[in-house]
Amino acid sequence: CISSRLPRSFPAVPILQALLYKPLTPSVIPRVFHFRASPSTKISSRFCSWIKPRVPPQDFNIFRAGFSANFTAMTGSSSKQSSSVYDFTVKDIRGNDVDLSIYKGKVLLIVNVASQCGLTNSNYTELNGVYTKYKDQGLEILAFPCNQFGGEEPGDNAQIAEVACSRFKAEFPIFDKVEVNGSNAAPIYKFLKSSKGGLLGDGIKWNFTKFLVDKDGNVVDRYAPTTSPLSIEKDVKKLLGLLDSLKQQHIIPSLLVK
Questions:
Q1: How far is CA 246 from CA 105, 138, 175, 179, in A?
Q2: Which residues are listed as membrane-spanning (predicted)?
Q3: Residue 130: which residues within 8 A CB-CB, separation 6 or more?
Q4: Which of 222, 90, 181 is nearest to 143 (CA)?
Q5: Which residues partner with 111 through β-bridges?
Q6: Which residue from 16, 49, 128, 147 lies 20 to 30 Å from 171 (Cα-Cα)?
Q7: Global pTM?
């Protein structure tokens, strides 16, 4: 260990600065430690001659890279924070990448679905109705199959697509089966949960939890699995701007009458 051979007065911070910010080569190692030390610290030539042959430069570079990576991981100083759902790429039911930025300007209803749940029939039926009614006005429903709740989505993607598209006639896009809770949760779901927490914690409680996303990709609301898609219709219309247009239709005739 290098630290066991250092003088007591040798400053630790300059060492780390040197390791993190100076390119280390055989000719530079002694000079890095010497010039990074404070003026009051004396480093003997004996120390420099000891450190050069015993600590190969590649080891220092490995240490520097590892320290920097660990520091970044602990502090999150260089990690890019996702600001909207448009920052994510997911896979569709056929395994193709889908950049969610293609939905910019759309209102999104994101749902974790299952084929064998007690809520399946009512939710698929009502989701179809809402989608058919508002898809031309800018609504998209994104369905993510998940098998984490009671094992109620056990099939592979082909079987899931058969149930959703053939049995329930779903016209909205179905995506790859994902996990929504735990360390293996899909990044998009980590973002959704951190944006809108639920009752008794952020975790998804069951199949058919719903997230409503505005035209800018911001998560604006979250609905429990038992919430009927039809009951969300008013919120969808508000984000689509349809409530404002209805108000205008009522206001203009009333002005003409007066």
A1: 20, 16, 34, 40
A2: none
A3: 109, 139, 141, 229, 230, 232, 233, 236
A4: 90
A5: 143, 210
A6: 147
A7: 0.66
How many Cα neighbours within 13 Å face the side chain of 34?
14
Domain range enclosing 164: 85-247
* Mean pLDDT per 10-residue interval, the chain, length 258 residues: 46 46 44 43 46 48 47 41 92 97 98 98 97 97 98 97 95 97 97 90 96 98 97 97 68 51
| Residues catalogued as catalytic | 117
Which of 53, 75, 97 lies at the terminal end of a domain, its last residue? Answer: 75
